[in-house]
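Weekly structure sync, notes
Attendees: PL, DS, HV (note-taker this week)

Item 1: Histone deacetylase domain-containing protein
DS walked through the input record. Source organism listed as Rhodohalobacter barkolensis. Sequence as pasted into the shared doc:
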Amino acid sequence: MRISYSPGYVAPLPEGHVFPMKKFSGLHDYLINNKIFKKSAIVEPSMVDFANLYTVHSQRYGYGVWTGELTKKEIRRMGLPWSKELAIRSRLAVQGTINTGLMALQDGIAGNLAGGTHHAMPDHGEGFCVYNDVAVAIKVLRQSKWVKKVLIIDVDVHQGNGNAAIFEDEPDVYTFSIHGEKNYPFVKPPSDLDVGLPDKTGDKEYLKVLSESLDRVFNEFSPDLIFYLAGIDPLEEDHFGRLSLSTRGLEERERMVIETVTQKEIPLALLLSGGYAPTLQKTVEAHALMFKAAKEISVPYFQ
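Item 1 (cont.): predicted structure, written out as tokens:
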């Protein structure tokens, strides 16, 4: 299993900023130091070409992020202060997701130690999301005829409004989001399947609803490739989640999704999305559960 990662995924933020930027390097180090993956599994991306960015984003916004020519309102909406390092990390992460999709098609399963920035819209960023890496990857892979039909499984606690809006009129891209009903974003464009959960939803109910929803998705749609946006913010202790998953419940979620997909022999691209646990270490360990599950689940088709 190959993994997209670059040291450039980490950009400087002001002291005390709520976004855990160092989780990207922290997760890389955790996976290597705990021998979950070898260094040889890491594939470092270059920065995505602007032509590929423009398959989703307007030229004004896409290039404006690069040059810093954004309004103060746009930067506030993005939630991250602009810097050249942020622009670089955003382009690196998008290419990392494109590469992850390609590697999943070749190997059966692959991961990006970033990505899943599902709030970004064509003409602006929001919710700590600068570019929409998943949307760009899907556009590029479909235009290049690598795939025709793509499924997004989005389990981040916040609805994937960017993906829902971008693919609203594309029947060959199916968007599925299971999220906190009363959580951000407060205006939720309709996905192909939205499952909004009440505050404090715990393991048993969450996993039951997820299982039923996956059954429905696969009854309705047969994809060539799946992007899994595995946000860890449904955890009970998450700063912004408002749901009540335990660590064990989160681990069962990862196994459920990965086993369901690999048993169907569909290539799977693993992405991080959000997560705001009380400490950086807990955030890293929670994200690592997906990669541990992916390594442990052995499917002969992919070997």
